[in-house]
Structures
1.
Amino acid sequence: MHSKNLQILAAVLFIFQIGCNSKVENTNTDQQKITLADSKKKLEAWQEGYLDIHHINTGSGDATYFIFPDGTTLLFDAGSMDKTGFEKKYAPLKATSPVPDNSKSTAEWLLTYIKNVTPKAHQDTIDYALISHFHSDHYGSLMGLGKEIPFGKIIDRNSPDLDFPVNLKTYLKDDDIFQSYLSLITNEKVSVEALEVGSKSQLHLLNDQNAFPGFSIRNIKSNATIWTGVDNTTMEYFTAEDMTSFYKGGYNENPLSLALKISYGDFDYFTGGDNTGLQGYGLPQWFDVETPIAKVVGQVEVTTLNHHGNRDATNEFFVNTLNPKVVIQQLWCSDHPGQEVYQRLIYQDKETMERDIFSTNMHPETLVTYGPWFKDNYKSLQGHIVIRVNPDGNTFMVYILNEGTMGLKNVYGPYQCN
C-alpha cells in the first residue's frame, strides 16, 4: 500500500478509536408521550416482578444499572472521563461536562443514583459488576464505586489471565486506571472472572430464580469469541496475532468488548460496549464484529448503540437485523453520533419498526453541526433513561429523569413487545 494511503487509513482509524434528510413522522398509535408539568413527580419505586434498566447520565462515559425481577442487581460499565485532558489531547473535539455537576466525583454520583433507585433490601451490594472493555469511559469509576459499595462478582473480558491479545499487565503498566483495577481485584479479594461466551447461566437471578422462568441473560461475545446461536457453542472470529499484526504490535480494545442479550418474556434487550462494525476502507474483515453478533441476537425491543453511535459501529446489517423499537445512545463527545449512523437509524421501509431514539447527553456542538432536522428525530436529548419492563414481559415504558432532581421529565409508552 502506498505511504499516502497508509497515512489516510491511520488517520481514519485514529478517529474511530478515540470514540469520540427528512423527518420521520411518529404514527405509532400504541404509544404516547406524557409531558409532566409537575417536575417534583418521581419514578415509582421498583417492585418485584419488574425489570428496570437505568442508563445513567454522568457526562463522563457509560453506566447502566439493572434491577432484575427478583431484586438481583447488575452494573454494566462505570465510566469516567478527564474532560480537560481529553479536550487538550484531541482538540477541537469537545467532551460533555460532569452531570449533575462537578461537586462530586463520577463514582460518588453513581453511588447516589444507585442508592436512590435500589430498594433498601438490595442496597448492601451490587451483585454483578461487568466491564465491557478497558477504556476509562467504561470502567474509570468502578474502583471508586467499589470502595463505597461491595461487588458480589466482577466480570470482565479476560480475567484472570488478562493476556488477550497482549499481556495487559505489562502493556498497560503506565495506565493508572488499569493499575488501579488490578489493585482492586487483587487486594480487595473480590471475586472476578471472565465472561463465559454462550452461557445462559453465568449471569442469573440470585434471589428467586424459579419465580421468573421467562427471564434470562445470554452471553453473546467477549474478546474474539462469539456465540454461534446453537446451545453454548462458540467460534473464534479472529486471533490475537490478527489484531496485533494489523496494529503493528498494538491492539484496539473496542472490538474486544463484551455483548449481552437480556430477555424477559417477549422483551429483548441488547448491549455491546464499543463493539465495531465498519467494513472496507482497508480494514480487515474481523473489524466488523457486529455482523456475526447480529446474526445470533436477532430482533430486539431495545438496543444501546455500540461505541456511542460512533462512525465505526452500528452498521446497516446490525440495525436492520436487531430492528429495535427503542434506541438508547450513551454519549459524551461532540462527534457522537456519526451522521451516517443516525441516517441508518431513522430510515424506514415496510420491514422497519417505527423507532424512537433517546440520548443521555447530546453535546450542544453536535446539534449546531447537524441542524434542526437531526434534533427533531430524537425523543429526548438529555437525561437519565430508564426502561421499565412490566411483569408479564409484554410491554415496557421509557422514563426520562432530570439528573439534578431525579424528577420525571417525560414518559413514553407503553410499547408492545413482539
2.
Amino acid sequence: MYGKFKVFKKLGFVFVLSLVIGALSVSCVEVIPGGFETGSSDASGGEDGTENGKDAESEFVSPEPAGGTDIFHEGRGENKNFVVVIDAGHQDHAMNGTEPNGPGSDDMKMQLTSGTQGVYTNIPEYELTLDVSLKLRDELLKEGYTVVMVRETNDVEVSNVERALIANKYKPSGDNDYICSVNIRVHANGFDSPDMRGALMYCSTASNPYAIGELFEECYDLSMSILEPYCELTGMPQYKSPVMYGDDMTGTNWCEIPTTIIELGFMSNKEDDILMATDEFRLNAAVGIKQGIENFFSQYR
C-alpha cells in the first residue's frame, strides 16, 4: 500500500485521491501485515516510507479476534518464515462424535471434550487458554513471526483431528519458504485432588507409531525450551514430573510438525487457579512461552 494512490470509479467518472507535496507537512498511517502501524510525520522522509533512509518508528496494534478457524497472520522481516501454530485448547462446547486416535487407527476417541474449569474462579478452561493464546499471538507478531491461530473466539466447532490438520498445512516443504514450524497446544489441568499444582509439558513418546513419533527429539526440545522461561516469568512452579509422555492425544498424533502441549497449571488447585486468573500472569505466560519458542528456533538459524 505504501506509495500507491487509490482510484475510485463512480457514475462513470474517475476520481483520483492525490496528495499535495511541497511546503506542506503531511502525516500518513498505514496498517501492514503483522499488526503494525508505520507512520511518518515529515515529508522529507525516504521514498520507501522511512525517515531519512532509516526505519520509521512502528507501533504494534493487536488484531481484532477473527471468527472461524485457521486464522493466518503473516510475519515480517527475518522471522517471517518461522511459523507458530497456536491451538487454544477446547471451545465453548464439546463435540461428542468420535474420530481415530491417529491416522489409520481403529481406536476411536471423542472429537473434543469440554475441558475443565476453575474450582475457585469458575473460569472455563477454554476462556483461559484463548486469552493466553491471543496474548502469545501478539508477542510473536511483535517479533515478526508468522502466526496461525486455530481459533480466536470461543464459538467455533473444530475437533482435535481438524486442529492437527490445520497445523500440518504449515509444514515446511518445497511449496513454501518456511524454515521451521511448530504447534503449541495451550491447555490447563484439572484433578480430583486440590493439592496437585504446577505447570507441565506433554509430548508424544519416541515409540509413537504415527509421523509425530519421528519428531520426538524436536518435540522434547520444544517442550523443555518453553517450560523454564514460562515458569520463571509467571512464578508457576513446575509439576513434580515437568514433562509427561503419552500417545493418547489425538490432536498430537495427527500432527506432522514439532508439537507440544503446555498445561499452564491446575485449575483444581486454589493457588494455581487464582494466579492464572490475573492479567499479569497471562501476559507473563505469553512472554515466557514466546521466549521458549525463540530458544527452540535459534537452532535453525
3.
Amino acid sequence: MRLRDLSEEEARVIESKGTEPPRSGEYDQFDKEGVFTCRRCGAYLYKSGDKFESRCGWPSFDAEILGAVERILDPDGRRTEIICRRCQGHLGHVFVGEQLTVKNTRHCVNSVSLLFVPKKSRREHGDEEYERAYFGTGCFWCSEASFRMLRGVISVTPGYAGGSTGNPTYETVSTGTTGHAEVVRVEFDPRRISYEALLDMFFLSHDPTTPDRQGNDVGTQYRSIVLYEQDIHREIAEAAIQRLAKDHVFGAAIVTEVKALERFYEAEEYHHRYFEKNPAEGYCRAVVAPKLSHLASSLASYMK
C-alpha cells in the first residue's frame, strides 16, 4: 500500500494520535463540495454533504463512507477513537447523543488527517467515477442478490472468471474442468461505499474455509475467490485475510484465492437477477432467502 510521506506535524497526529489545536485546521470553516480522503493513504472517508458546523473547532461529520472508518474505544473507556480503516491512521474521535443533527453522531476529525478532493477533479483528470470488484462466494445467484442490497453498489453482474478456458458457458463451468469460478462483478461508487465494506459482505456471505465447496455445492467453480483489477484491491483483500486469520474469526484456515483478473465472462441472461425473478424456486427459498435475511440483519447499516 502506497503511503504519503508525512510532515512532522502530520505524523504527530496521524501516527502518534495527537490533536491539532482547535480552529487551526484548514477544513474547520470549509464548505466546498467534494470528498475528504485520508491524508496518508488516500482512502475516501467522508462526503462533503455529511459535514456540518458544530462550532467545536474541528471538522465535523455525521456519517462516514460505508466501511471506511473504524471505531476503537480509548483505553480509559471514556471516548471512542476513529481511524482510517485502510491504513489505521488516527482521525479523531466520534461522539453519539449530542442531538446536533438528525443522525445524532459527530465525527470530530483533525484537518491534518484529511485531504479534500473537489467534486470536479476526477472528471478533469479523466478518472472513472465508479470502480469494479470481483468476488466468488459459491453460487452466483446468492452472490448477486447479496451485493445488490448494499448502498453505493451501482450494479452486480453474474459471470465466470479465474480460469483459462475461453468463452465458458454455465454447462462447461459446471463440469469443474474450465478453471473458472462463478463470480459477480460489482460496480460501486467509492464515495458512498468502500472496498473494505464490500469485503465485509464477501466474508460474511460464505464460508471462506472450505476448498472448492459451499454447502452442498461442490466443485472448483464454487471456490472462494477475490479477483482484482487494481493492486490496491489486492493489498486490501490480502490484509483483510491476514487480520481475520490473526483474530481466528473462522474455525479453520482461510482458503480464499486472491488473483489478478484476466477476463470476466458475463453469464447467460437467465442467470441475471435470478433470485428476484424466481423467489419461489426451491434453492431460492431454502438457501438464498434465509441468507439474505441474515445478511440484512448483520450488516443493517450497509443496506439500501
